[in-house]
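Morning run. Coffee first, then this:
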Amino acid sequence: MPLARIDLLEGKTPEYRSQVGLIVYQAMLDCLNVPKDDLFQIITEHPKAELQFDRNYLGVHRSEDCIFLQITLNGGRTVEMKQRFYKAIADGLHETLKVRREDVFINLVEVSKENWSFGNGEAQYATPAS
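And here it is:
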């Protein structure tokens, strides 16, 4: 059920953007127990002026190639699962696309299952009313 929003600096190739999405999806499968084919991503490029961030917050030295990932998903994953997920993405982006690990910013937004509708105006995962 995750919805991944991936924001990065404009000028990347379609192949690069696609590879970022695949790395995020594989990490969700491997670390967060997301069902196969549960792939919903929005990948957006931005001009430099539209990506505002502190380049040294918490002692992490970010470059202009920082990639922002915001993933909305059902609550319930352990801290350990989330930590493995963060590392899998940072390592995957670094190994495959040479993205600096410092340039991978991830935010998870946890919601309950009834907050999703996958179409037809239905809440597919909501518990039916009694």
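The first helix runs from residue 14 to 32. Good start to the day.
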